[in-house]
Specification:
Layout (H helix, E strand, L loop, with lengths): L1 H18 L2 H17 L5 H11 L10 H8 L4 H8 L8
Helix pairs in contact: 1-2, 1-3, 2-3, 3-5
Length: 92
């Protein structure tokens, strides 16, 4: 329960960001934490990767994803690459 409490707000915000609405985001939220439990409560970076996969972000690419993770969540380049994969740091 501590794990969910620690990351719940960030996960819900990302789900809303990717899916655009609260109803879809709530469903994705539960899926994300279900996957996280199967992965034995992964790190924050890995959890964000699960959010992205769950919300099917690759189908709807977003040019602002790097900035979202860098400025809003304070992640470093290596963490962003881990989440975004090959798309990461395209402008660098």
């Amino acid at each position: 329960m501590e794990y969910i409490d620690k990351y719940a707000n960030d996960v819900l915000r990302l789900c809303i960001y990717y899916l655009g609405g609260m109803e879809d985001a709530k469903e994705a939220f539960y899926q994300v934490f279900s996957e996280a439990a199967k992965a034995n409560n992964p790190s924050r970076t890995e959890l964000f990767g699960i959010v992205r996969s769950t919300c099917v972000a690759d189908i709807f690419p977003d040019e602002n994803e790097e900035d979202l993770y860098r400025f809003y969540f304070g992640l470093e380049e290596e963490e962003i690459r881990a989440i975004l994969g090959n798309k990461a740091m395209a402008g660098v």
